[in-house]
Amino acid sequence: MNKIETEVIIVGAGYAGIAAATKLFESNKNFILLEARDRIGGRVNTQKAENSGETIDVGAQWIGPTQYLIWEWVKKYQVETFDCYDEGINIYHYKGKIKTYKGTIPKMNPIALLDLGIAMERLKKMSKKINLNAPWSIANAEKWDGITMDSWIRNNMLTKAARSAMHIGLETVFACQASEISLLHFLFYCHSGDDLDALLGVTNGAQQTLFMKGSQNLLSIVAKPFQDKIIFSQVVNSISQNGEKVIVKTDNLEVHAKKVIIALAPALCQKIKFSPTLPQRKSQLFQRMPMGAAMKCFVIYERPFWRNKGYSGQIVSDKPPLHVSFDCSKPDGRGILLFFVEGKNARDFIERPLEERKEKVLSTLQLYFGNEALKHLDYIDKCWTEEEYSGGCYAGNFTPGSWIQFGEILRSPIGNIHWAGTETAIKWCGYMDGAIASGYRAAEEVLKS
Ligand SMILES: Cc1cc2nc3c(=O)[nH]c(=O)nc-3n(C[C@H](O)[C@H](O)[C@H](O)COP(=O)(O)OP(=O)(O)OC[C@H]3O[C@@H](n4cnc5c(N)ncnc54)[C@H](O)[C@@H]3O)c2cc1C
To answer: How many CB atoms lie within 10 A of CB 118?
Structure first.
């Protein structure tokens, strides 16, 4: 067992861990970053497609205009970005009928449209009441945390079409079923990411901008000045602390330091043995933030041929498993269509053989765009529930009833252990921007103490 002495240990080289490292590096602190995988990025992963050579982000890919921290990095390192294609007509496939529409809300009958509009306005108003620093502290917290979003939709929305659209939107944003999260968690998350429109939107929304070379490339550039401090393929399996120092162990390393920043999703912390054991409320919290399930299915074409037919490439369908798609083609480049499969559908779809999944995606696209949709260069899909060191995505969601009991301990340091990771963010929780904010906050806690 090799022994290392340092001042601060960071566990996890995702956006949160690297953000924490930048602050420690700027302050001339000695630190070591231990990462389980053999690469940087965590839930961010850029891959090269075999036939077309296109770079695609199988993990996080978009940034929105109000995600100021990640934009600071983009500007500082002059990383090239492009805007997600958001022109032309969108497709809405509901109850076997294919319709087209413009804007964010699919064309449905006027009563359903009114139903959806009223529900969205009510949710937006309620979300503004959430105190982002302490969602558990607001007047209705207990009541709202006790209602699942599924119950809220059933009790407050009248039409099937509007309910269906709400479920699809929710699954796309949270990567889980409406029955898995509370109204309070939904409202917190919406407010954390500005509002529901921003979470769902392309232009001016969270799906506005992509990276030419992928989101993992930006992180590698940020980490370059201290890349010698990152040790890969080191799965942290135990952390002990004795008041003065912490000892972090992997299979072949023992690192001694004054402080540790754990930059992992709470659910993954359950795999680490803490000594002394963590306060019971903290270890119970780890059990109450399960990861969502999302799968990205990319099809790469010679050109974005659907644009010539006037289509945006954005599809909303009530037919599982392929509910939502986007055009992620680079300007003047190949055509890249992305379908999301989320929650229950992702867990089911990944259990089908690859050939069957590919056939399903291609035949679905053929239905909307004709036979040209079959002439593809690459098909790539990835389901994050299969990733041992992520456990799912996009983030860990608080289960119903958990914010009010466990929210207060989410970010609080325990002795010399500090907590980062996008799940602990106040703004843009669940996103790369939130991960950066959480890393900065944890590093500042360490520097102040
Ligand atoms: C399919 C998908 C699509 C997404 N889309 C977007 C998007 O478009 N825009 C956006 O902003 N966000 C998106 N997200 C969410 C975004 O990826 C996350 O919010 C963000 O990357 C989380 O960063 P993090 O550093 O908090 O956690 P992580 O990225 O999970 O980093 C944690 C790190 O810890 C490592 N680790 C785990 N266990 C151990 C251990 N025991 N010892 C050592 N290391 C360990 C992991 O390998 C990982 O590198 C998406 C995520 C996915 C998967």
So the answer is: 14
Residues 6+ apart with CB under 8 A from 243: 415, 416
CA distance 337 to 382: 14
Residue 239 lies in a domain: yes
The Cα–Cα gap between 176 and 166 comes to 13
Contact 384 CB / ligand 1 (< 6 Å): yes
3-class SS at 43?
coil
Count of CB atoms within 10 A of residue 249's CB? 19
Please give the distance, rounded to the nearest whole angstrom, from the Cα atom of residue 368 to the centre of ligand 1.
33
| Cα-to-centroid distance, 45 and ligand 1 (Å) | 9
Distance of CA 174 to the CA centre of its chain: 8
Q: Tell me, using a 6 A CB cutoff, whether residue 62 lines ligand 1.
A: yes
Instruction: Give residue for tokens 């929105």.
Output: 64
Task: Provide the terminal-to-terminal Cα distance of the chain, rounded to the nearest Å.
Answer: 30
Closest listed residue to residue 179, CA positions, set 141, 147, 136, 140: 147
Largest CA distance in the chain: 68
**Partners of residue 60 on adjacent β-strands:** none
Residues 273 and 417 in one domain: yes
Q: Hey, what long-range contacts does 106-114 have (CB within 8 A, 24 or more apart)?
A: 106/165, 106/316, 108/161, 108/162, 108/165, 109/159, 109/161, 111/158, 111/159, 112/159, 112/160, 112/161, 112/162, 112/165, 113/162
Sign of the alpha-carbon torsion through 229, 45, 262, 25: positive
Q: Which pair of tokens denotes residue 302?
A: 């010679």
**pTM of structure:** 0.98
**From the CB of 392, is ligand 1 less than 6 Å away?**
no
If we measure between CA atoms, which residue out of 194, 270, 220 comes closest to residue 39?
220
Is the per-residue pLDDT at 135 higher than 90? yes
Computed on alpha carbons and rounded to an integer, the radius of gyration of the chain in Å comes to: 22
Whether residue 276 sits in one domain with residue 333: no
Average pLDDT over residues 414-429: 98
Q: pLDDT for 293-324, tens place per residue?
A: 999 999 999 999 999 999 999 999 999 999 99
Identify the CATH number of the domain in which residue 336 sits: 3.90.660.10
Identity of residue 225: P
Give the domain range for residue 262.
2-42+215-290+399-448
pLDDT in tens, 186-232: 999 999 999 999 999 999 999 999 999 999 999 999 999 999 999 99
